[in-house]
Amino acid sequence: MTTPLSPQTIAIVKATVPALAQYGTAITTAMYRRLFEDAHIRALFNHSNQGEGGAQVNALAAAILAYAQNIENLGALAPAVERIAYKHIGYHILPEHYPYVATALLGAIKEVLGDAASDEILSAWGEAYWFLAEILKAREAVIRAELETVTGGWTGWRTFEVTDKRKESEVITSFVLRPTDGRPVLRHNPGQYLTFRLNAPGQPELKRNYSISNAPNSDHYRISVKREAAGKGGSRYLHDMIKVGDLLEATPPAGDFYLAEAPKRPVVLLSGGVGLTPMISIAETIAELHPTLETHFVHGTQNSDTHALGKHVRALAERHGAMSVAAFYNEPKPQDVVGQTHDVTGVITIDWLKSNVPLDEADIYLCGPKPFLRALVSGLSLAGVDPDRIHYEFFGPADELLAA
User: Which of 152, 184, 317, 401 gives 323 a disulfide partner, CB atoms 3.0 to 4.6 angstroms apart?
Assistant: First the structure.
């Protein structure tokens, strides 16, 4: 059992809150620089979000500040701890990697704060770091033990063959993956993702998360990936170079965003852009296992060129009977016609949701880019939706301590 933090440590950590608010990003920038001096630690991370000025630098700074602010109320951080634990499972981060982060973090605090980072402060933050680290390691051990015992489960990296590659829109392509060892695959929770390590020519090894876009089964996974014009090439490598018969390596399904096993309320699925991928997994699961569950699939994209799997979703809705579908186009093409290619011109709004879905009683699942989530999550809260009924996932780094 983890030893509780001492009252002295709690007081010292709380006293550092103003300094963290002012110098947090400088500390995390220095921390990542120190951490990545070790090549085998550098290889563990998703570098599309790392580095000076990167999103993860800011996210980690915010998370460290939140930890200090909630040092007496760590229950408030429980959801973040769960997400981090799953991230670590996905990136195959092991207990032996934690000391490297501790050394880098404490060194960065001393580097940035200078003489203000007294031995007392460094000792307190060392204790606080290891307190959280032990909680994470314990939770990760439980998850790994479950993965090793369940049918189709595994830990670490497993090899999959691409057995099908399908273009779903001008920007999104699906890849069907079957394990080369011939064993079953773990039946994932609908909404979870896989983590891949990709070896694109001329680049360092890449780590990327992609949501599973099919219902749970014991045979295969499907991912549906948007080809990003910017970035360091994970999606472009998949789109442009990976073909049927090629091999990819992945860790087990992970993530705490998924459909409840036994939904008790109506479900509203809200997605923006490629955020529809986990929603497809959820919708397929509902169509298969919950034939009477009231479900509303609401998706926003630019136009018919970018709209993926639209016909598939409408076919699911027809089969299910209690599922409605609404597609929003915010930049329709001349050939796009309301009532044929899409249902509404514009973006998804809270006013539209109030009039068309049961906001007062449904569980609402959201996935998409940060601007999409900022608008809708805050809007739903202002509309009086209980926070316990708002579940969301986004693509990019979360504001979490120790997230890879």
Answer: 317
Kindly state whether residues 11 and 46 are assigned to the same domain.
yes
98 annotated active-site: yes
Task: Kindly state whether residue 110 falls inside one of the protein's structural domains.
Answer: yes
pLDDT digits (tens, 9 = 90+) for 242-254: 999 999 999 999 9
Q: Is residue 399 part of a domain?
A: no
Tokens 């069907």 correspond to 176
The answer on 134 and 33 residing in a single domain is yes
β-partners of residue 333 are: none
Number of domains in the chain: 3
CATH code of 92's domain = 1.10.490.10
- Same domain, residue pair 360 and 232: no
The predicted pLDDT at position 52 comes to 41
What is the per-residue pLDDT across 340-370, written as a single tens digit (0 to 9) for each? 999 999 999 999 999 999 999 999 999 999 8
In tens, the pLDDT along 107-135 reads: 999 999 999 999 999 999 999 999 999 99
Task: Evaluate if residue 260 carries a pLDDT over 60.
Answer: yes
Q: Do 242 and 286 reside in the same domain of the chain?
A: no
The neighbour count for residue 7, using CB atoms within 10 Å, is: 9
Of the chain, the percentage scoring pLDDT greater than 70 comes to 94
Query: Which residues form the domain of 227?
Result: 158-250
CATH number (domain holding residue 379)? 3.40.50.80
Active site annotation includes 32: no
Of these residues, 140, 294, 393, 400, which one is catalytic? 140
Structure tokens at 68: 């200090």
320 and 374 both lie in a single domain: yes
Name the catalytic one among 98, 193, 221, 237.
Answer: 98
